[in-house]
Amino acid sequence: LMPSENGNFKTVDLIGFRMHHLGGFPGVVRGTEKDKTTAELWTLKFDSKEEHDYCLQRLDCLEGHPNFYRREVVKTEDGDEGWIYIFQGSVKGCPVLTDWVKEKNTISRYH
Fold first, then answer.
1. What is the pLDDT of residues 40-49, one digit of tens each?
2. Exposure string (b/e) for 52-69, b if CB count within 10 Å is 16 or more?
3. Residue 40, SS3 per DSSP
4. Which residues on neighbouring strands pair with residue 13, listed in sequence order?
5. What is the pTM of this model?
6. Which residues pair with 30 in a beta bridge?
């Protein structure tokens, strides 16, 4: 994804969350205060509340909210707030990552 006229993102650190390599995609779960992961915080611009609500509905559908991932509000290390989708399945045996973009290709798909 690339920044556009409708939105931009920045890289942020999330304390208390752990990201796991689930195969072809990542899964973030709650961890301890010692856990930290890197994420993208997107700021999107909408022309109307209807457009905002439609986008959120589509994102929820894509992420399988509330059963596969559950959308929650989180605060970043810098104090920004945003939504994150928390993985609802088991991460047993799935490698821990700190940055999906940097590490996704370093782990075998058949861990």
1. 888 888 999 9
2. eeeeeeeebeebebeeeb
3. strand
4. 38
5. 0.82
6. 17
Low-confidence ranges of the chain (pLDDT < 50): 1-3, 109-111
Residues 6+ apart with CB under 8 A from 79: none
User: How far apart are alpha carbons 8 and 45 in whole angstroms?
Assistant: 9
Determine the residue type at 110.
Y
Helices (H), the chain: 49-63, 100-103
**Which of helix, strand or coil describes residue 31?**
coil
**Residue found under tokens 């509000």:** 73
Residue 23 carries which side chain, given as an amino acid letter?
A: G
Collapsed DSSP state (helix, strand, coil) of residue 95? coil
